[in-house]
Design brief:
Distance between the termini: 47 Å
CATH topology: Spore Coat Polysaccharide Biosynthesis Protein SpsA, Chain A
Oligomer: single chain
Number of domains: 1
Largest sheet: 7 strands, mixed
CATH architecture: Alpha-Beta Complex
Number of strands: 7
Structural class: alpha/beta
Order of helices and strands: EHEHEHEHEHHEHHEH
Radius of gyration: 18 Å
CATH class: Alpha Beta
CATH superfamily: Spore Coat Polysaccharide Biosynthesis Protein SpsA, Chain A
Number of helices: 9
Strand content: 5-15%
Strand order of the largest sheet: 3-2-1-4-6-5-7
């Protein structure tokens, strides 16, 4: 419990046997439930997670690989069904510093935001800690995400997030994109429903992890999702304008 709220952490994991124990060991004591979603790993990620000595940890397994978005859908459903008031995402690659979690939770628990999103790019050490390609690429994708969704998020690709129960009730979670590009689709879905997104500065953490985002994702998948978000945004604006004219 934190501030009287039940807190859950979802850990999407695919072939993270090297890092999963480190990730689980870092989860703060105020977290009530931890759901590891093994996305059909071909290594022993699930076995290591299941063997971790922590009664809060539950391991959910996909028979087929669905992508990080698919893993998060499974985790969100499990966490909110278990009574969570806020659900944080801490990926199984140990790239999300546990000391940043209270700050991410704060705006959601205070009712100031529906979705809090980590912002690594505003951290003082972002330029030195982040690989150059990721630093530049994340800036570019973040600019495009802001333009297409209307949400002023500075680091659209950061997966360190907190979703509140109210927002979850308003979202069609099962309709969200399942693969890479999920963060952009989520921001677009939140914007379309008028839900509040808040950036929170978090530290960038990088070690020997290998990014699963390739050129196809960066040049095809994510632009497609952003164009779809843009089209939906204008559709929503037209609907609002029509409703306003009817009132007049």
């Amino acid at each position: 419990m934190l501030a009287g709220a039940r807190i859950a952490v979802v850990v999407p994991a695919y072939n993270e046997a090297r890092h999963i124990v480190t990730t689980l060991a870092s989860v703060p004591s105020f977290v009530d439930d931890v759901f590891v979603v093994d996305d059909a790993s071909t290594d022993d990620t699930a076995e290591r997670a299941a063997a971790f000595s922590d009664a809060r940890v539950r391991v959910l397994r996909h028979a087929l690989n669905r992508g990080v978005g698919g893993a998060l859908k499974t985790g969100y459903h499990a966490a909110f069904s278990a009574g969570a008031d806020a659900v944080a995402v801490m990926a199984g690659d140990a790239q999300m510093h546990a000391d940043d979690l209270p700050a991410l939770l704060a705006p959601v628990l205070a009712g100031e935001a529906d979705y809090a999103k980590g912002d690594r790019l505003s951290h003082a050490e972002a330029r030195t800690r982040m690989p150059v390609t990721r630093y530049v690429g994340n800036h570019v994708l973040s600019v495009l995400t802001r333009l297409c969704t209307g949400v002023r998020t500075r680091d659209s690709q950061c997966g360190y997030t907190v979703l509140g129960r109210r927002a979850a009730l308003h979202l069609e979670i099962d309709a969200l994109w399942e693969g890479y590009g999920y963060p952009n689709d989520m921001i677009g879905a939140l914007a379309r429903r008028g839900l509040i997104v808040r950036d929170v500065v978090v530290r960038p953490v990088y070690a020997d992890e290998i990014s699963g985002i390739g050129l196809r994702h960066a040049l095809v998948v994510i632009p497609f999702l952003l164009l779809r978000a843009l089209a939906r945004r204008f559709s929503w604006l037209e609907e609002r304008a029509g409703s306003f004219e009817n009132v007049r």
